Amino acid sequence: MVTNDRRKTARGFTLIELLVAISVSVVLLSVLAFVFQISTAATRDANSRVALTERLRSLNIRMRQEIGAILPVQRFQTPGTTFLDKRTYDIDNPGTWLVFSTATQENGRPVSVDVKYEYIPDGANPNNGILVRWRDNTGPYMYDIPTQKWLPNPLALLGDNETSSWIARTRADIMVTNVRRCVFDIIDAPPGMPVGPNGTVKPIPVGPVTELNPRELPSAVVLTIEFGAEVGNPDMLQNTTMTFPVYRGL
Question: In three state form, how does the secondary structure of 86-114 look?
Answer without folding.
Answer: CCCEEECCCCCEEEEEEEEEECCEEEEEE
